[in-house]
Amino acid sequence: MIATAARTGLAPAPLWGEGRGEGELPERSTAPASDERQPQQQQQPLLQLRKINSFYGPVQAHFDLDIEVRRGQIVSLLGGNASGKSTTMKIVLGLLKPRSGEVLFNGESTLGLSTPQIVRRGIGSVPEARRLFPAMTVRENLLMGAYARSDRKAVAEDLERMLELFPRVAERIEFQAGTLSGGEQQMVAMARALMGRPQLICMDEPTMGLSPLYVDKVLELIARINAQGVSVFMVEQNASLALQIAHHGYVLQTGRIVLSGPARELLADARIRDAYLGGDGAARTAS
Ligand SMILES: Nc1ncnc2c1ncn2[C@@H]1O[C@H](COP(=O)(O)OP(=O)(O)OP(=O)(O)O)[C@@H](O)[C@H]1O
Ligand SMILES: [Mg+2]
């Protein structure tokens, strides 16, 4: 059982508190649901993929893909091998341009933007297999996550907050990142993404290859980060675990969304249970 922030009743301090370089950085991703001052912004999804068709050469990877992430949500994208999950992340991060369709972040198209520009708009990334700089220290890796920021004092404060949120990372701060365990590296990758103060974090298989202890720990941290105001779009093959912390889920099959809905409904859906839960319906080859 995963002890999510909601379940444990943890009430952590917000990641970005008052007086932390506000005005220079993107606003926090969530506002109280009762905030009626910006009704239009409240209604608008944070991220929208509309009718995306993407290709690798002649091979079509997405067919009219429609996905939404609302402010404050954790959205899980599920699906078996080669169903197009990682390609969806590439589209969001501007690493692959769809042949047709639209990607909107805060209602604005990101399609003409480079990846660094998209990151500056407020999308952070925890890529598949972590992709740390192995020869650099943990501290240097974390600071790389703030490369787009010029507010040095706030960056230093955020680094301190990350070390509070990830005590294991704090213990390893001067180690070379490549010497850390997979679970520790995953935490560094998450902290690095948060150092950019994103409104949305995209994660590709954050529990991949981790020991069961770290799987629970990482999912708990994702729920906790979300509870502190960061929206999450995560790819997972482990549907059961992902849906336990998610608000909403989508199931991809060979580039098409075949099922979507509130996470608790998907958890109860016989089609999901048959395909993904119980046995390792998500049997996969390590990558
Ligand atoms: N660089 C590439 N060049 C050509 N085809 C690719 C490339 N990357 C992915 N594909 C193809 O696109 C489709 C979707 O791949 P993608 O990596 O998005 O799947 P996935 O759901 O992330 O799979 P996995 O669970 O194995 O990570 C697959 O058919 C894959 O072979
Ligand atoms: Mg993948």
Describe this structure as you would to a colleague.
The protein is of the alpha/beta class and 287 residues long. The longest helix is centred in the last third of the chain and has 16 residues, at 212-227. Helix 5 (138-144) runs parallel beside helix 8. It contains twelve helices and ten strands. The strands form two sheets. Strands 6-7-8-3-9-10 form a six-stranded mixed sheet, sandwiched between helices. Strands 2-1-4-5 form a four-stranded antiparallel sheet, with helices on one face. The protein starts with a helix and ends in an 11-residue tail after the last helix. 34% of the residues lie in helices and 22% in strands. Strand 7, helix 9 and strand 8 (231-236) form a beta-alpha-beta unit. It is globular and about 45 Å long. Magnesium ion (MG) binds next to helix 3.
Label this structure with key terms.
binds adenosine-5'-triphosphate; alpha/beta; 287 residues; disordered C terminus; 12 helices; disordered N terminus; binds magnesium ion; single chain
